[in-house]
Amino acid sequence: MKNINLEKIFEHLNGIFVILTILGLITVFSIQITLLPSLSIFAYISWALLCVVLYTLANHLKLKNSSEFDFYKVSEPVGRQTRRKKQNIEERVAIHIDEEGLDPMIMFNEEKSGVGCILKLTGLKPKHKLSMYLSQLEITVKQEGHPIAGQTLVEMSFQGQSGYYRLSSDGKMESVEFAFPKQTELLYEQVSQAIDLLLESNPLLPVTKIDVTNFQAMRKFYNYVQRLSAPENRSVEYLSYCQGTLKICNSSYVELYDCTLQSTLTSWINQDGLIRSDNVDEELAKSNVLHLMDIELPYPECRLTNIQIVKLANPLIAVKLYLSLAELIDGAMTENVSTLTLLMKGSSISIKRDEQLKDEKLKDELISVKEYFEQKSYPKF
């Protein structure tokens, strides 16, 4: 069957529209002379509506089906536009979705990653030949697509388990990030051995291990505590707890909008001794409503200035928080400071007031939330 050229048809429709409009005006003028005025007005309106409908239909079909160059939308020739599309498709090859629905590039973002562990190796040079060490331990490496902005994505495989590493280079120095999806322990151990062999010959190369699960679980709590030292920090509205869950409501001044906003943080301790704040545990999800009990504040108005961690003999089963609360009078802090210690263990929270650390030995038992966060999220390689 011969192909129908729709563009030619649309051009003819627009030409017919112009001719019909001219004929319509002549017809209306003739009717005005020979017939009644009311009939001439009716004919004019009907003809005008018909012309509008035909014009709209023709342009709609043309826009819908046209694949030609559009002057108002594109500022480059069609040929160049087609080449650019092909080039973009080639560049996107390196960013694909794997069988678990994870974008390998996203795997290297601790806040969004779906992996369990990330290793970062910095200060490399081409002479270190990382791929050689991996191949020696029967780890199959395969480059994905082409380098993008100086970054090369490589897939690793060992005994049916797969992961990725991303090589970044500025021409002189290189850095490598290894991303290990969950349940790829064999691959992790094999790559770790390859890195150990590399470090034996180059002991000064720094390696950082990131426990992504811990990072994601604790980062909200960590960021919340860091903001307490900011000048924007105002008063604490309430402290509540229930079933091992702690809820803090705090006010902060927002200079941009010249107002005070409240923010809340809900945290609990899981079986690994993490101060979690990423999502709701299964136990909490079963309960529709948590009947929170308020913790009495030491002053009518006070500011939560800091939260620290008290070292425990077994930090895997409990966490002890040390809260510092300063008295506020007319929004200004006084020298009066009170403390609360909360021992969070499983589904219970025990509270002690004004547990002051009187001697230097006890002061050494305090660590910052930042230190605690780094211990849990950045364990030694």
Largest sheet geometry: 6 strands, antiparallel
* Strand order in the largest sheet: 2-3-4-5-1-6
Helix content: 25-40%
Total number of beta strands:
16
**Shape summary:** flat
Following the backbone from N to C, one meets helices and strands in this order, namely: HHHEHEEEEHEHEEEEHEEEEEHEH
Please identify the structural class as seen in this structure: alpha+beta
Radius of gyration from CA coordinates: 34 Å
Distance between the termini: 69 Å
Query: In terms of per-residue confidence, which ranges show pLDDT below 50 for 5 or more consecutive residues?
Result: 66-94
Tell me the β content: 25-35%
**Arithmetic mean pLDDT:** 78
Q: Please give the count of helices.
A: 9
- Give the domain tally: 3
Describe this structure in words.
The chain is 34% helix and 34% strand. Residues 66-94 have low confidence and may be disordered. It is of the alpha+beta class. It starts with 5 loop residues before the first helix and ends with a helix. The strands form three sheets. It has a six-stranded antiparallel sheet with strand order 2-3-4-5-1-6. A five-stranded antiparallel sheet has the order 10-9-8-7-11, with helices on one face. The chain has three domains: 6-65; 106-205, Double Stranded RNA Binding Domain (2-Layer Sandwich), CATH 3.30.160; 214-377, no CATH class. It is flat and about 100 Å long. A hairpin with a 2-residue loop joins strand 2 and strand 3 (151-158). The chain is built from nine helices and 16 strands. The longest helix is centred in the first third of the chain and has 29 residues, at 6-34.
